[in-house]
Write a structure and sequence with these properties.
Rossmann fold; globular
Length: about 250
Amino acid sequence: MNQTLFALDRVSFQRGAKVIFSDVTMTLERGDRLALLGSNGTGKTTLLQMMVGLNKPFTGNLIAFDQERVSESDFRTVRQKVGLLFQDSDDQLFCPTVLEDVAFGPLNLGKSDAEARDIALSTLADLGLSDLSDCITHRLSGGQKRLVALATVLAMSPEVLLLDEPTNALDDDSKERLLSLLASLDMTMIIVSHDQTVIERLANRAMIMREGSLVDAVMHRHPHQHSHSHLHIHAKSDLSHHDPETHTDHHLAD
C-alpha cells in the first residue's frame, strides 16, 4: 500500500520580483525514485530545498509526513527524516575532519559521542572511504568531497534522499561505486541530474520542470538498429496533444 510522504499543492516561489515556479503540485510516495528534470534555472534545486524548509513557499501548501509544514520548527522533524545532498559539496562540509563531518548528523539526532563515531566509521566503510576518516575535509579532491557529503547524509539514516546532481565531480570509478550503492538502497528518492546514467540506474518515474510548472512524464526506451537504445522521457501533456511545437523529449543515450 502506497504511503504519501510529501504532497505539494499549488506551490509557488519567487525571488524578489522574479517568479521561479508557480502552481507546482506533486506527490512523493514511499518507494518512488523520482527523476526531476528540466533546464538549468527552472527551479529544481529551489524545490528540493523547499522540501526541507530552506526555502519558504510564496503561495501553496507543503505537507510532509502527514503534517502541513510552515514554520522552522515544523521542518526540524522533516530534516531528521530527509537527507538533502547539495549540488555543491562545500555547502555541506564544514567540520575540520571527515570523521567529524560524518558524525555531526548523528550527534544532532541525540547519539552519544561513541555512537556517532561508530555510525560515522561504519558509513565511511560502506562507501569505501575509511582511509579518509582523519583527513582534513577542505583538502580533499572534488570527487572525495562528493562521496563524503553523501556519507554525512546516509549517516543520519534518512527515509528520503533528495539528490541534487549526485555525480558532480566524480570520476568513472567513483561514480559507479556511488550509483551501485544508491541503487541498492531501499529508500525513496528524488534525483535531479543531467547525467543519463544516473536517471537510467535510479529513477522509476519522472517529472519535468518547465515554464514555471511541474508536469508528469513518461519514461520509455526506443531501440535503434545501428546503435544502443535510447531512454526517452516525454511530458504526458505532449503525448496527449501531439503538438510538435510544445513537445519535450528528454532522450538519454546509453
